[in-house]
Amino acid sequence: MGSLWGVPVLVKDSMATKDKMQTCAGSWALLGSVVPKDAFIVSRLQQAGAIILGKTNLDEWAGMRCKGSYS
Length: 71
Fold this sequence. Notes:
There is one protein chain. By secondary structure, the chain is α+β, with helices and mostly antiparallel strands. 11% of the residues lie in helices and 15% in strands. It is built from one helix and two strands; from the N terminus they run E-H-E. The protein has one helix at residues 40-47, and strands at 8-12, 51-56. The chain has a two-stranded parallel sheet. The longest helix has 8 residues, at 40-47. It is elongated and about 40 Å long. The relative contact order is 0.32.
C-alpha cells in the first residue's frame, strides 16, 4: 500500500489518463483523442494508491495558447 492508498483524487482535464476518461484540455478539437500513456503525475498518484475519480473542467487549452491569457 502506498502513502495515498484509497485517497480519491480529481485531476485537471489537461493531464493525460490512459483510460476511458477523455483528455481534451477543454477543447472540442481534442474530444475523442487517444493518449498513448498516463501523464507522469497521474502514474505517480496511481502508484501511491490514489484513486482517480474523474477530471476537472477548465477553459479551452487552460490559457496555454497565448501570452497574457488569464485562466
